[in-house]
User: Which sequence fits this backbone?
């Protein structure tokens, strides 16, 4: 087998803008959470479940999509404000785009501000958005080999949410193997297997989010 | 709901290189097929099934991945030559990268040359690779709303293969609705629901591939 190695052009000065946004969010006591995954891994469904499970928080959502506003409409139906960002074909959100969206939110200093990044396991991992926490979703149907194929996403994430666990009986997905591969890339990663459909695992996830939101306000 | 519109920087001169590669493939009688999908939609599994189902063809595979060589090893185990391309973080293949990979294939003038593009519904649709046919896979667990969210991919594809149809009972995926949304974007798109696991729908797909390969050699 032949292997060709190609190179990625390096991006610039995004990190400085990301740090500025993170500082601003820190001052305002808003934990900005960057949610990343493949298309169809269940980001919007999970967000709807989290909005219901965390009624004591002011929550707003930034929805990044190539073109449609389907997800933002869905989120607003659950009672949280949503700002829809159309990335015009761009496969990720960078810090400047995120800051623009953050400043379009009407709710004053929300406790939790979720950025639903573009559905993609590659580009979003390459750009610091300025979020306080990075969370990735991997759905059971995608397969347990994804840490081998998209390592950067697993390295950059504070938490890995394994979604659609209710479908485990129908796929050959080894939870232990997947967790082991993720921890090999990122020993500190928090792993939450959940099913938004059955509610399984949601309590551990919401407990962690509560503690992260509290820690963010203290510092 | 607020909607922010951002703009994509336009790419250049890739189209000319794509046309040159397509011409070369035409002269050699090799149908280059660009396979695109989300991560985990089943490109490698489908390719393995096609290699088995089309023993009368010389087949080679170009595997594009960020980093790993998992898929190429899998394909070689099925008896077809595989060239692994590591895109170095790049989220798509362009025509120049594809030409480089094509020229690394040892098999002389294969009948079918599959490019398994990077797992991503966005960037690969934006770059003409020089392929004679573009095929996208959408797996049932990803959801039937994907044509609404990633329209360009559906517009650019000659065929849509809906994979993992054996899991239809476990998901709320409406085949008719999905097909209708895809045809609204691309009236001529061919649609093949298949399960590589049970073999359902594979015959219609291989019949179409045979007729496309024959047509490519005639022109």
Assistant:
């Amino acid at each position: 087998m032949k292997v060709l190695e190609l190179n990625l052009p390096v991006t610039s000065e995004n990190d400085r803008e990301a740090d500025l946004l993170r500082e601003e969010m820190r001052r305002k006591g808003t934990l900005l959470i960057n949610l990343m995954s493949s298309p169809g891994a269940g980001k919007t469904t999970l967000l709807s479940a989290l909005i219901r499970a965390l009624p004591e928080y002011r929550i707003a959502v930034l929805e990044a999509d190539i073109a449609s506003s389907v997800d933002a409409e869905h989120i607003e139906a659950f009672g949280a404000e949503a700002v829809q960002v159309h990335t015009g074909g761009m496969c990720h959100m960078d810090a400047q785009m995120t800051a623009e969206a953050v400043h379009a939110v009407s709710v004053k200093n929300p406790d939790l501000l979720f950025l639903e990044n573009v559905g993609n396991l590659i580009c979003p991992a390459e750009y610091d958005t300025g979020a306080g926490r990075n969370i990735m979703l991997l759905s059971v149907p995608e397969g347990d080999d994804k840490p081998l194929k998209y390592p950067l996403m697993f390295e950059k994430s504070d938490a890995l949410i394994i979604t659609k666990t209710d479908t485990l009986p129908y796929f050959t997905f080894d939870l232990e193997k997947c967790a082991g591969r993720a921890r090999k890339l990122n020993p500190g990663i928090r792993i939450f297997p959940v099913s938004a459909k059955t509610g399984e695992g949601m309590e551990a996830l919401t407990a962690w989010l509560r503690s992260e939101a509290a820690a963010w306000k203290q510092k």
